[in-house]
């Protein structure tokens, strides 16, 4: 046997229906004795095939090639059948056998990737819509088509099925009453759903005899077997289709699982990515937020610092200025080649360029290099936006001569806070010098070119121990009287007029009071070393004599002890002390005297507190007023007692002049006749 061609055994053709001569079936004249088939057909690559060859070169690695070659082989066989008058059924049987072996062969290949797309077309799996003629198990004719595969054209005898297959095949069989045994199948009515297996078996036997069984032995079914109707016989699936279905199902299950895992992996990846992006976004947001908050804090701190500095610059603070020396000044007197210089220190507002204060140094005679003793010019109040101007002037009989001017702005933070000692060059005129009355000074500015420099010293006073500002208090005469009596002088206390606003400065243990801001010399200077102030809190509000008939007593915390000629005056002063505010102040070793009044001596504990001196002054003035009221009230009561009866209207008129806090709130009934309240 050569590899190029193979001689096949003779294939006997089954007789066709209707070819009967004289009552018997006649064999066809043309029978295939030898059939030349190309060695490229896949049937020759099965070891168990009778037509197998041992050529290792012919091997298909994919199902695509196998399917394509199957189709090519089928066309060749069809062409051979037409040319050599080959029976179509024999060719179809060979094609079906080749198809099954090919499917078994290609099922062993692990290179299949998509089973759904590799299914064979219908025109390849079936031969012109006709089913196979031979049984797939016994290879005997099966004209009755007892069992047919619903997916391909394979037919089987019912007796060729295994017990398990037969059990699955008969899962829906029901017992019905049998039909006549010799009921015709062809030409009559089809078997009903309740037909017995015996009648069906006889029908199949008669069909086999009628068609011509092809020499095979007859197969009879058991009389106990029952069959389903014809429309329910298409439920059998051959082994090849089961394997394909299981493979497809396995592949589809695996693919579905893979797609499900891929989808869930993608979903989980998206969720993880979203969470990670959210975390990174929050982390970035927190980082940006911290940076923004830090920047805002820095900016807010910078703005607040600038506001505080601007506010502190606007606040006035006391400052001491000294002019120490002047060097290389220009010649003003041509006769003796010298000058008689003095320095005018002025304070100007940088915004309005107005002069607020002026101080003059002493005059140095006939010199160009001079020195001054520290005179300590106290500026009662200067802000951080002011400018200190030093103007050097030569004293003349007719008109003073301008020698030079220098300006020191206090906008410099170090100079404003700490001050210093430095030299300043004399330059041309920048600020007009005015007198204390805001009139322009009589100075000649255009004759001499400025030259030389000044040595000045600026000492800002500490803001913790020094303070300045406007004060709302009593008249300056009262303040002057009290302060002067503290050093031994005696003056009469004038009547208290309306309150005036004056300027006060506390520095270096002294309290200086100016009539107005802009004065260079204080009106009153009080040494705070001899002034001691104590602050006493009252234990509670005491009842007035009108609310209680008991005489009021002096609380133990009261520090004022009064030595008078009359007990009534003593009680009146005690009442005035008790009806004050929660704070009481007293002076120690201070004598307030008048020409025809009694003498008051006050004692207080030794407590230094110089910040409330104006409250002390206001307290004693208010106390003096209350003493006068109590005296006038006691006199009016004594007069009413001496007169006797009086009208209610006259009583109201007389009591209306008394400025008592109890009378202003509610009027109490008239006191008992003959009793005098202290």
UniProtKB/TrEMBL annotation:
InterPro entries: C2_dom (IPR000008), C2_domain_sf (IPR035892), PH-like_dom_sf (IPR011993), PH_domain (IPR001849). Residues 1-31, 180-229, 534-582, 629-678 are annotated as: Disordered. Residues 186-206, 667-678 have a biased composition (Low complexity). Residues 300-426 form the C2 domain. Pfam families: C2. Residues 17-31 have a biased composition (Basic and acidic residues). PROSITE patterns: C2, IQ. This is C2 domain-containing protein. CDD domains: C2. Residues 1-15 have a biased composition (Polar residues). Coiled coil: none annotated. It comes from Triparma verrucosa.
């Amino acid at each position: 046997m050569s590899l190029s061609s193979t001689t096949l055994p003779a294939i006997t053709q089954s007789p066709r229906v209707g070819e009967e001569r004289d009552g018997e079936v006649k064999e066809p004249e043309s029978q295939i004795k030898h059939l030349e088939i190309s060695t490229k057909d896949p049937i020759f690559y099965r070891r168990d095939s009778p037509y197998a060859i041992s050529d290792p070169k012919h091997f298909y690695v994919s199902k695509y090639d196998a399917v394509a070659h199957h189709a090519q082989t089928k066309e060749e066989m069809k062409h051979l059948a037409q040319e050599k008058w080959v029976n179509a059924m024999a060719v179809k049987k060979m094609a079906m056998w080749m198809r099954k072996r090919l499917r078994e062969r290609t099922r062993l290949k692990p290179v299949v990737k998509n089973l759904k797309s590799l299914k064979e077309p219908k025109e390849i799996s079936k031969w012109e819509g006709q089913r196979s003629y031979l049984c797939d198990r016994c290879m005997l004719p099966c004209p009755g088509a007892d069992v047919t595969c619903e997916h391909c054209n394979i037919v089987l005898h019912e007796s060729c099925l295994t017990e398990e297959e037969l059990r699955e095949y008969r899962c829906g069989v029901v017992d019905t009453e049998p039909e006549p045994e010799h009921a015709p199948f062809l030409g009559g009515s089809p078997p009903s759903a309740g037909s017995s297996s015996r009648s069906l078996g006889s029908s199949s036997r008669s069909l086999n005899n009628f068609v011509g069984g092809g020499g095979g032995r007859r197969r009879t079914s058991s009389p106990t077997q029952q069959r389903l109707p014809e429309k329910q016989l298409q439920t059998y699936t051959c082994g090849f289709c089961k394997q394909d279905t299981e493979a497809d199902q396995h592949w589809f299950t695996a693919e579905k699982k893979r797609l499900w895992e891929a989808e869930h992996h993608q979903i989980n990846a998206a969720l993880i990515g979203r969470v990670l992006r959210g975390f990174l976004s929050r982390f970035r947001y927190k980082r940006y937020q911290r940076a923004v908050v830090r920047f805002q804090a820095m900016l807010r701190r910078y703005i607040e610092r600038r506001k505080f500095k601007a506010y502190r610059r606007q606040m006035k603070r006391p400052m001491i200025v000294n002019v120490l020396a002047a060097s290389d000044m220009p010649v003003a007197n041509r006769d003796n080649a010298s000058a008689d210089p003095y320095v005018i220190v002025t304070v100007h507002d940088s915004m309005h360029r107005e002069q607020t204060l002026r101080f003059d140094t002493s005059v140095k005679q006939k010199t160009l290099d001079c020195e001054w003793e520290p005179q300590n010019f106290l500026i009662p109040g200067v802000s951080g936006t002011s400018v200190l101007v030093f103007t050097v002037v030569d004293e003349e009989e007719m008109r003073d001569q301008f020698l030079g001017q220098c300006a020191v702005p206090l906008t410099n933070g170090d100079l404003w806070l700490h001050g210093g000692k430095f030299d300043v060059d004399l330059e041309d005129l920048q600020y007009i010098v005015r007198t204390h009355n805001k009139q322009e000074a009589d100075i000649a500015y255009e004759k001499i070119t400025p030259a030389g420099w000044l040595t000045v010293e600026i000492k800002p006073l500490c803001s913790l121990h020094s303070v300045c500002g406007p004060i709302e208090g009593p008249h300056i005469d009262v303040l002057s009287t009290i302060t002067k009596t503290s050093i031994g002088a005696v003056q009469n206390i004038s009547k208290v007029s309306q309150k005036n606003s004056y300027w006060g400065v506390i520095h270096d243990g002294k309290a200086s009071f100016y009539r107005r801001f802009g004065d260079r010399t204080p009106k009153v200077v009080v040494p705070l070393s001899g002034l001691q102030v104590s602050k006493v809190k009252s234990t509670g509000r005491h009842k007035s004599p009108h609310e209680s008939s008991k005489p009021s007593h002096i609380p133990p915390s009261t520090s004022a002890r009064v030595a008078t000629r009359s007990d009534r005056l003593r009680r009146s002063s005690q009442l005035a002390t008790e009806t004050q505010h929660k704070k009481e102040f007293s002076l120690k070793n201070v004598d307030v005297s008048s020409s025809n009044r009694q003498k008051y001596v006050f004692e207080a504990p030794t407590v230094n507190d110089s910040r409330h001196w104006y409250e002390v002054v206001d307290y004693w003035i208010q106390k003096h007023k209350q003493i006068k009221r109590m005296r006038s009230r006691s006199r009016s009561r004594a007069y009413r007692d001496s007169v006797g009866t009086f009208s209610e209207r006259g009583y109201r008129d007389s009591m209306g002049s008394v400025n008592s806090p109890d009378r202003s709130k509610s009027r109490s009934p008239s006191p008992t006749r003959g009793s005098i309240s202290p």
